[in-house]
Amino acid sequence: MSRFYLIVLLLFLSFASSGQQELKKYLDFAQEKYDEGDYVYALQYYEKAMKIDSNTIDILWGYAETLRAYKDYRKAAFYYGKVYGREKAQLFPSSLLQYGLMTKQTGDYDQALELFKLGKKKYRQDRRGYLYMKSRAEVQSCVWAKSNEGDTANYIFEALPKHINTPNAEFGHRIHKNQLIFSSLRADSISTNEEVYDTTYSTHLYRSAMENGEYLNANQIEELAFDNIHTGNGTYSLDGSRFYFSYCGDDGQNYKCKILVAYVDGESFVDIDTLGRIINSENANTTMPFIGEWIGSEVLFFVSDREGGRGGMDLWYSFIKDGNQYEKPINIRTLNTVDNELSPFWDAENQTLYFSSSWYNGFGGYDVFKSTYNTAFSEPENLMEPINSPANDLYYFETSKGDSAFFSSNRLGSNYSKNPTCCSDIYSVRKPLIALPPTIEESFEELNKRLPVTLYFHNDMPNPRSTDTVSNVNYIDSYYDYISRIDNYKNEYSKGLKGEKSEDAKDDIEDFFTEYVKQGVQDLNQFMDLLKDELEKGRKIELTVKGFASPLAKSDYNVKLTKRRIASMVNYLSSYENGFFVPYLSGNAENGGLLSIVQIPFGDSQSDKIVSDNPNDKKNSVYSRAAASERKIEIQSVDLL
């Protein structure tokens, strides 16, 4: 080897060694900052590292994880996708789930749905594991989100002014004596790159007086500010003499919190003390207090990951006696999940608990839900748009008059300096003083947005082997009978298959029931609520309903069968809300309203020709997804007569 080439080789090795040392330094510092929760600096060093090496899977994973923590959903989805494309969830098992979750938080529900369905298959070897359970729950959640996006309630919706909402994070907590109590992550000096030049950069409690609907300048509550400690989540006792709040130290990516109480002396807070171990369980994270009245007693709602929970942060409550005695906390097991439930708000007048969760059907991240108590807490109900969004929506609370509500969200449109979804702002919603009724055109546009409503049936149902064209079966009874057969469908359709092919067939059937059969009933109920509103106005409405069947029976039989199926839907309408639709269907409504149903029974004339019509091949002619997809009726149009 010539001396020239030897020199070149030595220089190359020297530069390579130097580059590797530089890369290691960047990655070590990025990990250190990530562990400290300083995602802005961590991202800067990951980006420097990726200029040297943008292909190593570990670097891509670390970058994706930091982007998720920084709430940059779009970029996080892109890099999780790159990671999963390379390692197929072998090196980083949660890569596919996180790819789906970040995609969902961008509002792309179609792509997210496909990723979660893939996740169900990828993680099904451990059906009791979190990755499988979460993927399965998110399949249903995406189907729900697709069906419900755009259903914005008639609210006046606005962000609080910019002297309250900054490019950092704000979280609203309460209105007390015409003062907004909120938390804010503020520093004295912040660059346009979101770099903090203040060693006391922490979340602190603030208050802003409200005069004539305006918010005055926010002032930090000095007595509740501590060095290197985050405070927030303020709530007053029922008599206003005590103030509870969260006191949190940094614990890497998360806070480690306990609940403190201060006594109120005019505008000041004195005699600050921590609640005992009954509430602040040792080695647990306990935070987000809210004081309310329940069953004639003062009660403390809070969240904690203490022992005895369902998983993650759970909702708990403890009754208070004499202002300082706390009963053993009770876990609200019917509402808590394996994910986090956060930021409780109790409406004593309506016996309703509001909270945020990342598990139930929602638009993405944390959504706000409500549950009414009547001997037990009801199934959580999503508060819908505009309160919820694909981003994180938390800290919902209402004013004492109940005329307006507040919540915090990092949705697009919030203040920021670099990442549009980095930080939360406080938003308010209220009903307009004078709500103009929608025009006929607007009402029918809303109805038609719900179409088609598609309802599915088991083979030859209702009234099997009948030649009648009418039925006394209520569709909802037929539906419950149908979904009770899911396991039977899985077993029959997977017969003769083994291993992955058998599991794929079962998943295919389960996805069909989730995406279509169950969703059809939800769509119908939402449609009927809107239809009810229009009929109450005396409208004369015509529905066109088409019926379809699989090609298993003869065509003339299938025409009669589809008529029975349409009749079962009419029976469901007749039973809805104690027979609300009956006078409209019969033409005897006092307000002159009318509901007319035009039936178009296609039978099997438009069924997919590849669907088996062999009665001896029930696997494909009855239990296959293709056959099941043909057995349906559709409300296809709404017209004003």
Could you explain the architecture of this structure?
The structure is a single chain. The model is unreliable at 10-16 and 188-200 (pLDDT under 50). The chain is α+β, with helices and mostly antiparallel strands. It folds into three domains: 20-148, Serine Threonine Protein Phosphatase 5, Tetratricopeptide repeat, CATH 1.25.40.10; 156-430, 5 Propeller (Tachylectin-2, Chain A); 440-640, 60s Ribosomal Protein L30, Chain: A. Helix 2 (39-52) packs antiparallel against helix 3, helix 3 packs antiparallel against helix 4 and helix 7 (130-148) runs parallel beside helix 11 (499-536). Strands 2, 3, 4, 5 and 6 form a five-stranded antiparallel β-sheet that branches. The chain has 15 helices and 26 strands.
Total strands: 26
What characteristic shape results from the CA principal axes?
globular
Give the uncertain stretches in residue-range form: 10-16, 188-200
Discrete helix count: 15
- CATH H level, superfamily name of the largest domain: Glycosyl hydrolase domain, family 43
The percentage of residues in β strands lies in 25-35%
Gross CATH architecture of the largest domain = 5 Propeller
| Helical coverage, percent range | 25-40%
The termini sit apart by 94 Å
| Rg, Å, rounded | 29 Å
**What characterizes the major β-sheet?**
5 strands, antiparallel
CATH fold call of the largest domain: Tachylectin-2, Chain A
Domain module tally:
3
Task: Return the structural class.
Answer: alpha+beta
> CATH first level of the largest domain: which class?
Mainly Beta
**Mean of the pLDDT scores?**
88
